[in-house]
Amino acid sequence: MGMIRWIMDNQRYNADYLAIPGIQAMQQAGEQSWTNATHLVIADELPTLAGQHLTLRHLTPDAEETPVVLNTDGELVDASTCRQARLFVTQYVTLADGQRVTVKSGLQRLKEAAEKLSLAQYSEQCGVPEAQIIALAETFTSHGRKAAVISHGGMMAGNGFYNAWSVMMLNALIGNLSLSGGVFVGGGKFNGVSDGPRYNMNSFCRKSETVRVKYCS
Asked: Which of 92, 107, 152, 153 is deepest in the core (most CB within 10 A)?
């Protein structure tokens, strides 16, 4: 999050890439991926609505549940048909039921989350010197889209998912997803189910009943 804070403060994110709101726009731009950075999120703490993506159905009851973005002309439009959307959005929207809610773009929400702490505070939290956080962020964003960061291990905690997710956000910010030199989805995995013989975990010879470790000599 400290690196994200620096990237946001210094505008070292890939704005053109992040402005692509859907598959159609991705194809038109000749890209290999897209993000929901521009998709609008309901920011008010309202029951059943808080944190939801704003959809066309929120605005028109009989419409589809398609995400909404703010296009470059400042209009609320279907994300799937928009070619380029605004990155940082905070504004009021009146829903079909008459409720007036605050909506923010996903990137705006990420920016605000990163701004909750200063670099000095992030440094104190993680034990990494502030100068090193800056150096890492600067180096990471100095190679265009030919840079990548992954996380494996060190995330096994109650907030591990959120930590890993924030690490992956670094890749999205520079637009390296599904590109040579960047990050690809679908690496190695464990095939836990397939045809063929298997160990019977209930009848291992000399199995230990006390520690549940089953073995054969």
From this structure: 107
Among 72-81, 93-102, 104-113, 200-209, the range scoring the smallest mean pLDDT is 200-209
Neighbour-count burial for 130-165, b at 16+ CB within 10 Å, e otherwise: beebbebbeebbeeebebbeeeeeeeeeeeeeeebe
The predicted model gives 31-44 an average pLDDT of 97
In sign, the C-alpha dihedral spanning 70, 75, 77, 82 is negative
Sequence letter at residue 165:
W
pLDDT tens-place string over residues 23-34: 999 999 999 999
Residues 95 and 139 in one domain: no
3 state SS of 3: helix
> Does residue 99 share a domain with residue 155?
no
pLDDT-derived band at 192, boundaries 50, 70, 90: low
Query: Does residue 20 share a domain with residue 92?
Result: yes
Does one domain contain both 64 and 89? yes
By residue range, what is the domain housing residue 65?
A: 11-110
What is the reported pLDDT for 191?
Answer: 63
Is position 168 within any domain?
yes
Q: Is 141 in the same domain as 79?
A: no
How are beta strands 100-105 and 40-42 bridged, if at all? antiparallel
Quote the CA–CA distance of 9 and 61 in Å, as a whole number: 39
- Structurally, the chain folds into a number of domains equal to 2
Mean pLDDT of the chain: 90
